[in-house]
Amino acid sequence: MRPRQFTDEEMVQTARRCFLEHGPGVSTSTIAAELGVSSAALFRRVGNKRALMLRALAPPAVPPFFETLARGPDERPVGEQLEALAVEIDAFFVKMFPLLAVLRAAGLDPHTLLDHMDEPPPAKAIRALTAWFSTLIEQGRIRDVTASNAAMSFIGGLQGRHFLRYACGASLPPPDPDFPRTHARIFCRGLVPQPEANQ
197: pLDDT confidence band, cut at 50, 70 and 90? Predict the structure, then answer.
């Protein structure tokens, strides 16, 4: 019988699920069994458990919301765009923080995840969001603030709630699914002159 063939994507998705379900101590034999292959076949593909963990759990070099930022602001009211952007960025953090928590539990320094990247994704996100806010300032659609400060505040408010949840656990109030939109509305009140802020 020929050995089962598996794609890199299958391997990454299966390993990610196993690490999230069982923690960093899950055996590679368990992951291989979930894939329906031998441990030897898994090691031939990825080398060792640490390499597999990094491939399965490390953040992408280009987060998915970058595509939205690259297009720049459109003609919709700024508040509407901020809400959509907040929901998209928050959804990324919802997926990423559990993965980072497993990596930290494995004793892997988050800085080591970024060594192979020309620019760390958080810095890239701030730069892209700064450009997005700069365009709105140039268009006269938001107040003339320091765009990088606006970017840091906007993304920091979204990221901060996930960090606090992992730091404080159940002592915090239950997660509110409307938080990203609420954050965007509050932010909009400070940035967008009336009447567009109310649209």
Answer: very low
The helices-and-strands tally (H runs, E runs) of the chain is 9, 0
Left (φ > 0), alpha (ψ -120 to 50) or beta: where does 47 sit? Answer: left
Residue 185 has a CB neighbour count (10 Å cut-off) of: 15
Take residue 47 and report the two structure tokens written for it: 């080398």
Q: How far apart are CA 76 and CA 16, in angstroms?
A: 37
- The dihedral of CA 91, 93, 99, 102: what is its sign? negative
pLDDT in the model for residue 10: 94
By the 8 A CB rule, do 89 and 187 touch?
Answer: no
Instruction: Tell me the domains of the chain and their CATH numbers.
Output: 8-57 (1.10.10.60), 66-198 (1.10.357)
Dihedral, CA of residue 87, residue 90, residue 94 and residue 95, to nearest 10:
90
Number of CB atoms found within 10 A of residue 50's CB: 12
pLDDT tens column, 83-125 = 999 999 999 999 999 998 899 899 887 666 666 677 888 888 9
Distance of alpha carbon 187 from alpha carbon 168, whole angstroms: 25
CA dist., res. 120 & res. 164, Å (int): 22
Distance, in Å, from the CA atom of 84 to the CA atom of 95, rounded to the nearest integer, reads 17
